[in-house]
Amino acid sequence: MRLAILGASGHGKVVADAAELAGWDQVVFFDDAWPGLKENGPWRVLGDTSALLADLASFDGVVVAIGNNRIRQVKQQALLAAGAQLCSVIHPSAVISTHATVGVGTAVFANAVINACASIGEGCIVNTGAVVEHDCGVGDFSHVSPNAVLAGGVKLGPLVWVGGCASVRQLVEVGGGATVGMGAVVTKDVPASVTVVGNPARVLEPLKD
User: Fold this and answer.
1) What domain of life (predicted)?
2) Is 66 found in the same domain as 95?
3) Domain assignment of residue 38, given as a range
4) Domain match, 178 and 97 both
5) Which of 8, 85, 118, 204 measures 20 to 30 Å from 37, CA to CA?
């Protein structure tokens, strides 16, 4: 089976590696840095976004491997509108409950855990070693970074970024577009579109002139 990955980055390498381990036997990249960028590690870069859109019929699956949540959203929605066969990539060592759901275009990496009745939206990243506990909801195009932990019943809005090793207390809600800094310990609800850092997490105020 042939898989096209849009986004030839370090993150893309991890997606490609997981895809091969999951059984995709031919993995290639497309990236808007082409033709200056023709390789991404051991994988070939065949063209830019336009080239991929023109050749969608050649691939059994397409996934966007771009770390920036908003750019990933734009690219995935454009591919969907063009009729791409969008798919998810799940590393074989990930543990996903049969009672959890994972949306199309999502990447789940090595040793991640998604427990019973959790719901992962479209175009998400559940990164290496991340834990999404029972009854959590992760909004579309969000990113749960390596070794981050969402305790039971946590709800993330769309386009949320939870930094590496951060922890979110059970039943907490994080508003859309918010960022949880690396190592933060979130004990109460987080408004939309803010950044929180520290233990306990607090809103990072913008710098004053």
Assistant:
1) Bacteria
2) no
3) 2-87
4) yes
5) 85
Annotated catalytic residue within 72, 91, 134, 169? 134
The token duo for 105 is 């275009």
Is the pTM higher than 0.85? The answer reads: yes
The answer to whether residues 192 and 93 belong to one domain is yes
Residues annotated within a binding site for acetyl-CoA: 143
Binding site as annotated, residues = 9-11, 31-32, 67, 143
Give the number of domains in the chain. 2
Known active-site residue 134: yes
Q: What is the pLDDT of residues 62-92, one digit of tens each?
A: 999 999 999 999 999 999 999 999 999 999 9
- For residues 110 and 73, state if they share a domain: no
